[in-house]
What we know:
By secondary structure, the chain is an alpha+beta fold. The chain has helices at residues 2-7, 12-26, 55-73, 92-95, 135-143, 150-162, 169-175, 180-189, 194-210, 217-223, 229-240, 244-256, and strands at residues 30-37, 40-47, 81-83, 102-104, 110-115.
Amino acid sequence: MFGRLITQSSTLGEAITTVQRIVASHNSGATYWLTREGDEARLSRRFGIGERAFRQADLMTVALMIQLIRMVAGPQWQPDEIDMQSVERDDGPTLAAFPGARLRFGRPATSIVFPSVLLVRSLAPPRASAPVIAPAQERAWTSAAPPRDFLMSLTTLIESLLASGRCDVVSTAAAAGMSVRTFQRTLAESGTSFSSVLQRTRLAMADRMLADPNVKIIDVAYELGYGDPAHFTRAFRQWTSLSPNEYRRLRLREMELPAAS
């Protein structure tokens, strides 16, 4: 859907506007924008984890940006200047993918520079066989975007961070694009705390996963961010007074009962 909406744009500038609109509705942790610098334009993206931005996310972003510009500049086009949020490290073979580009690391945003005249160039028309996305289809897809409500969005964010083992209050605040103080104040204004939302999120995820008899307890523990399954078992007992295995047996038994009339 994302790619098809972009290819339906008439010019590169319109395609970039489409990217900005879609990302804003589906990813609360990333922001794209376009700036003009004389005869050049800079396409930028800022990811909400600041200076700790993941290198792989940066590389993927740059690759996607380059592919977008190549839609009008040709398949061999390369940027002369690339900024990355992530810090520099010794990965020359990866950076060799951008020959001739001036690379800067630890920047406020990830960005590439290209001639601004390309913004008004027409994109190649979609193939005749490519289905056209009607406005109603796009509205339906947009309505399925992640929640914008703070607590619901935070739950979604925590779910995505747990398996990485980086779900402490500092990392989560950074991923949400907030200072720790602002993050905790917003939680307090919502009548809760980070530890409470984290516990509820873990319990909801555990409930879903334990309802599947094919999912191993150790996999549930790792998915919830526990490096030691025994720590998960102790925490789960505190939440429910049951071990994960005991809870699973009861959960599966409930699922087998006929619905009440």
